[in-house]
Amino acid sequence: EEPVFLRKKITLLRAFSLLIGSMVGSGIFISPKGVLKNSGNVGFSLVVWFACGLLSMFGALSYAELGTRITKSGGHYIYILETLGPLPSFLFLWAEFFAIRPANSAVVSLAFGRYLLEPFFAPCAAPLAAVKVVSLLGYYTVLTLNSWSVSWSARVQTALSIVKLLALALIIVPGMMLLAQGHTENFQDAFDRQSLVLDKLPLAFYAGMFAYSGWYRDNSFCCVSLLFCRNIPLAVIVSVVTVIVGYMLTNVSYYTVLGTQDVLASPAVAVSFVQRAFKSLISVVPVLVALSCFGTMNGGIFTFSRTLFVASREGQWPPLFSMIHIRRHTPLPAVMLMFPLVTAMVCIGDIYHLLNFFSFSRWLFIGLATLGLIVHRYRHPELQSPFKVPLFIPVSFTIICLFTVGMSFYSDPVNISIGCIMVLSGFPVYYLIDILQTKLSSFSPSSDYLTHKLQLLLEVVQQEIKTY
């Protein structure tokens, strides 16, 4: 009885919550072990964390300009489509669906299950089967929430953003107190050259950038939502600087309490930290960390479903995924699409192998997006943007991203090669779809029997006039 379209439910506060909420999530509780393992010592791992923060700032500012220059919705996908063309944008969509997003969601889900169960089995590790079952239950809960209501998923994200900051505070404050009392023994020989593993440095950056990666998902989403675009650069700068400071202090706290071997041996670093520092918080911090991971899952599903929604409207994804539930006004088909792949990756995957696997594709296309900003500036010098970064920022960011992607083949050839093959497999699919669309152009989309039946089953229709 009323128009069916995605409502504008994201205020500036909610946009800020999405950005902070996804950046401060599972990464800071997963990545310390990966950064330390692939950098070799405490001192250099802290350098990697700081460098990843600066690199994220460059990327976030470049995306902020992209968002103000290209005002169509769709985030990363639409940036590549508008600057580099349909083939690179389809390859991104292909890699995002089959590699980046399901593997990322699986990593966060596994962290959720690990931290939720760890207190019940301490000092032993939680059984892997139990972790995977709880991980899937958490992911399915987020799917249901995003299918049910845009408003409720946004409210949950706002509330969990506060929980994330509280979890960090409960790690930072005790660690800084112990450091102030003179507990600096774990920082002796922090830059020991004999322990450096420079050949694994790209994997250390992959782990560190994973913790900061919320700027890539939700900065693009916030910009293209056309809500308060003039405030987006300020929100990005404040958010990223806040997260850099928080992450550096968190890692210093970890190393103040735990030695190098303790961090490398721990299946859940925050749990080991609390066990060593404040046993009275043993049941509190892991639950807060699990809720942080829950918020990251929620933000990831929220944004990726909109990417599929826009790609479907652009004709590069099946039309069913641009449809809206007639009562809930949620992009139900796009939300539910990730269900089987994430389930499979949680069942068969390991956190750090999955992280290396999807990081190749993610940073390849992030580098291409900022390359697209440089191309767009060259092609449209007359275009006035309300926000413009110095050219060296997107240039340096693009070079570092593509260099890291290339070097990672040497660091982890198996997982990186699988990720590369996944991207390249999109080439024949793109041309096959192009041929089929040409041959079937005389047919109306409504004649697609399967699409019509799925519409009836899911109670979804094409949105009317207004767009998100």
TrEMBL record:
InterPro entries: AA/rel_permease1 (IPR002293), AminoAcid_Transporter (IPR050598)
GO cellular component, one term: membrane
Keyword set, alphabetical order: Membrane, Transmembrane, Transmembrane helix
Major site of localization recorded for this protein: membrane
Transmembrane segments: 12-30, 42-64, 76-100, 120-142, 162-180, 200-216, 228-249, 281-304, 332-354, 360-379, 391-410, 416-433
Pfam families, A to Z: AA_permease_2
MF terms (GO), sorted A to Z: L-amino acid transmembrane transporter activity
Keyword Transmembrane annotated: yes
Membrane topology, as annotated: Multi-pass membrane protein
Cellular location(s): Membrane
Superkingdom of origin organism: Eukaryota
Protein name per Swiss-Prot or TrEMBL: XCT protein
Organism of origin: Nothocercus nigrocapillus
